[in-house]
Amino acid sequence: MAAAVAAHVLVFPAPGQGHIKCMMHFATGLVGAGLHVTFLHTDHSLRRLGGAAAALAAASADSPRLRFMSIPDGLPDDHARAVGDIVELLESLRTNGSVPYRSLLASLVRAGGGSGGFPPVTCVVADGSMPFAADVAEEIGVPSLVFRTASACSVLAYLSVHRLFELGEVPFPADGDLDEPVRGVPGMETFLRRRDLPGNFRSCTENQNDPIVQMLIEITAHSHRARAVVLNTAASMEGPALEHIVPRMRDVFAIGPLHAMFPAPAAATSLWREDDGCLAWLDGQTDRSVVYVSLGSFTVISQEQFTEFLHGLVAAGYPFLWVLRPDMVGTIQNAALREAVAAAGDSKARVVEWAPQLDVLRHRAVGCFLTHAGWNSTLEAAGEGVPTVCWPFFADQQMNSRFVGGVWRTGLDMKDVCDRAVVERMVREAMESGEIRASAQALAREVRQDVADGGSSAVEFERLVGFIKELSTRDRS
Questions:
Q1: Tell me: the pLDDT tens digits for 6-50?
Q2: Do 259 and 115 sit in the same domain of this protein?
Q3: In a domain, 195, yes or no
């Protein structure tokens, strides 16, 4: 008979801001449910956190069951690890990082790692973009689950990729009509267009040899085999997509938005140093008067795009808080910062390198959010009822922005356009439309019900904790 043991979960996110953030909220929830958690970073990510996460784990009396460890990703320290390097980074982790990962995990299975009284690891929850992490765990006898950090609607599109090729809906010609309907994704036949498919579908060839598409095909095939798939989403937002995903997996847990259920300290979730001073600036603005602009942790824009955004924001006439990362506009960054503030005037513009986004979205002064429609940002705006203008950059963001503009109607979809007149018009509409604001606030109420006690996400998280505990008590010898 299997003996009961303490559940100890190793949580392993891909080394990107959005992945680390949502999986840290997840880990916080597991700790709150009484489980031990080892949160595994890459060495590079942990260095970017400045050791703050490790210090928090060591010093916080509230989280004695949480600790942070790291392994090398196999790339040189001075490697940029930028958006164009994603495939290289993940491949390096698979080929170079899997050996130290296997060694570390084996040691944690034997003795819990020898510190802090942690029991042996009994389960791995690995980022779905790193199939090797789940496979290595299973090979050494540790049951593993897959965590998909993207939206359910985009996961469903990835699940449909072979069907899309069979129907001839991808690839489509470079000069083809991007508004042509797409029929191959179930449940989305009435509103999905070519331009709404995940970005790399546009670069597919007849041989399906786009590296990102190949990676997505591999990830999706792996998800089919996983013991379970965890999704950071809510039934009120993506119920129809979940209904199509569930029959195709062994089990699915929809447990979001995780940030609303399990707050985590910014020091443990952000690879960028947040500028808290922008909150004081917001305090000096009137209610719903500020446009918050942030295009996420990976998006890069050209000088021309920067200029169009800037002129559109200034012409809209509202104060704006703009997040411009140091690597976002290349070598012109310092000049861009000065130009943005000067163009609007000090009292009407605040430009920062990174912001405490959730605090910003909750601030009474914020009237709308110009976003890249990354899934974390989309969930945070939805939970706070903030109208959005979406300018997606890559991956699942094209799908997310379509749902914002065409399904939930909580904002506007500005994809494939970067024109000052369009920026001005859409910002004004998002700020002034009573219909959009009402839809955003209605969705926020539904999301809050999902994450409240007895709500669908809260119930699913309890089921997941039970599932993990059951895996931990099984005899795996």
A1: 899 999 999 999 999 999 999 999 999 999 999 999 998 888 886
A2: yes
A3: no
Kindly state whether residues 306 and 217 are assigned to the same domain. no
CA 204 from chain centre, in angstroms, equals: 24
Q: Within 10 Å of residue 170's Cβ, how many Cβ atoms?
A: 22
Q: How many residues does the chain have?
A: 477
The answer to whether the beta carbons of residues 301 and 325 sit under 8 Å apart is: no
CA distance 324 to 336: 9
pLDDT digits (tens, 9 = 90+) for 146-168: 999 999 999 999 899 889 989 98
Helices (H), 49-97: 52-59, 86-92
CB 112 within 8 A of CB 121: yes
- On the CB side of 233, CA atoms within 13 Å amount to 28
Nearest residue to 39 via CA among 71, 7, 16, 10: 10
Kindly state whether residues 125 and 94 are assigned to the same domain: yes
Co-location of 286 and 393 in the same domain: yes
* pTM beyond cutoff 0.90: yes
Quick check: helix, strand or coil at residue 120? coil
Instruction: For residue 321, give the amino acid letter.
Output: L
103 three-class SS? helix
Residue with tokens 């310092």: 334
Supply the CATH number for residue 389's domain: 3.40.50.2000
Domain carrying residue 143: 8-153+211-269+453-473
Catalytic residues: 19, 127
Same domain, 51 and 66: yes
